């Protein structure tokens, strides 16, 4: 099903206190081309009457992703103010710049796949919303900035494995990434997962580079928008810096499930873990796989922590905070709400501190 939430698009940038209207497309998708594990499009094998099949999980090669970037990317800076009064400046790649790259890559004129780069928010099992920043990711980024501020020796003295499920533009991870980069040794692993490999390649990965450019003063984040020139030397300096500060990054595409879990935790044993997820509980069909993966990761961790940020209700779709809490309780988890500083703005939302019961 193709649909648009009432708060469609890059909802961080939208004023949400206007009317909230259910906007579910009446059209039921007959067939969508899907991506295979390498991010290429493939026709749905089930034929015209079927929905797209879920994409299989895949560990992507980080260096190849960075090599596929153009020599210049355009960005705008999102500025956030935390409850404790701190400022975070998060440059994000512009979506029109992504469109330009995809069209330029379509050298054989077959038609670039611009799914998700127009007005549609989600196409079930085809594109799950990752190109745009959703507003709950802002809440989570602010909480993390205040919570991890005081830690010594990186974002933590003990190695921290930060796993963002359904990361998209990855604002929460970017907030932590900037903090890790500002230490001499961060001792931090990042696993960034998104349903769509193209989202990881075209927005998540460039956004990490942009945040690195802020911390290393290659980019002036006081300008609301600008462009960053990218050279092979810059990419080498990026990887050298990560190595020196003991920061690693992995990217995983595809759908939540056991195969996905095996990629996140190949040895079935994780140390200190922080799982992050923003706006991943909108679909009743994926509530169970999402909750299972989340709880499985927590079970495999010696020191687990998890935050799930979401709107209280996804109009016309069926998911939301209460539905998640019910599923979580049935599957052996529990959630505490974190106090939010969002009075009077937009659709009601929450950040949950999730643990195994
Ligand atoms: C609405 S987007 C939110 C993106 C981002 N976290 C934010 O808040 O800006 C939902 C995200 O959940 C992920 N997602 C949804 N269904 C999924 C599934 N079945 N398997 C894996 N990821 C899924 C997608 O990667 C997508 O980026």
From TrEMBL:
Cellular compartments per GO CC: cytoplasm; nucleus
EC top class, as a word: transferase
Protein localization: Cytoplasm; Nucleus
Keyword Transcription: no
UniProt GO molecular function: protein-L-histidine N-tele-methyltransferase activity
InterPro entries: Methyltransf_16, SAM-dependent_MTases_sf
Record keywords, A-Z: Cytoplasm, Methyltransferase, Nucleus, S-adenosyl-L-methionine, Transferase
Family the entry assigns: Belongs to the methyltransferase superfamily. METTL18 family.
Official protein name in the record: protein-histidine N-methyltransferase
Organism per entry: Xylona heveae (strain CBS 132557 / TC161)
């Amino acid at each position: 099903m193709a649909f648009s939430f009432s708060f469609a698009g890059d909802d961080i940038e939208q004023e949400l206190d206007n009317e909230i209207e259910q906007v579910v497309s009446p059209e039921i998708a007959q067939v969508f081309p899907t991506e295979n594990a390498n991010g290429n499009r493939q026709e749905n094998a089930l034929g015209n009457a079927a929905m797209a099949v879920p994409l299989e999980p895949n560990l992507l090669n980080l260096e190849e992703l960075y090599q596929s970037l153009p020599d210049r990317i355009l960005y705008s800076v999102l500025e956030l103010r935390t409850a404790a009064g701190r400022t975070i400046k998060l440059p994000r790649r512009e979506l029109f710049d992504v469109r330009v790259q995809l069209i330029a890559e379509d050298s054989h004129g077959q038609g670039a796949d611009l799914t998700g780069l127009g007005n549609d928010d989600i196409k079930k099992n085809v594109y799950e919303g990752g190109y745009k920043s959703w507003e709950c990711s802002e809440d989570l980024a602010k909480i993390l900035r205040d919570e991890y501020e005081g830690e010594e020796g990186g974002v933590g003295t003990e190695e921290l494995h930060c796993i963002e499920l359904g990361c998209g533009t990855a604002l929460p991870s970017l907030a932590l990434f900037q903090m890790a980069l500002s230490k001499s040794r961060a001792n931090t692993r990042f696993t960034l997962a998104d349903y769509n490999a193209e989202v990881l390649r075209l927005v998540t990965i460039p956004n990490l580079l942009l945040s690195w450019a802020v911390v290393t003063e290659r980019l002036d984040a006081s300008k609301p928008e600008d462009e960053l020139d990218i050279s092979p030397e810059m990419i080498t300096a990026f990887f050298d810096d990560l190595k020196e500060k003991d920061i690693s990054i992995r990217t995983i595409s595809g759908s939540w499930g056991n195969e996905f879990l095996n990629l996140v935790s190949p040895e079935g044993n994780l140390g200190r873990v922080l799982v992050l997820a923003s706006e991943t509980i909108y679909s009743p069909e994926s509530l169970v796989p999402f909750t299972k993966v989340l709880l499985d990761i927590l079970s495999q961790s010696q020191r687990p922590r998890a935050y799930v940020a979401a709107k209280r209700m996804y109009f016309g779709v069926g998911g939301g905070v209460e539905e998640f809490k019910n599923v979580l309780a049935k599957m052996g988890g529990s959630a505490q709400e974190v106090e939010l500083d969002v009075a009077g703005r937009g659709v009601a939302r929450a950040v949950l501190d999730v643990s195994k019961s």
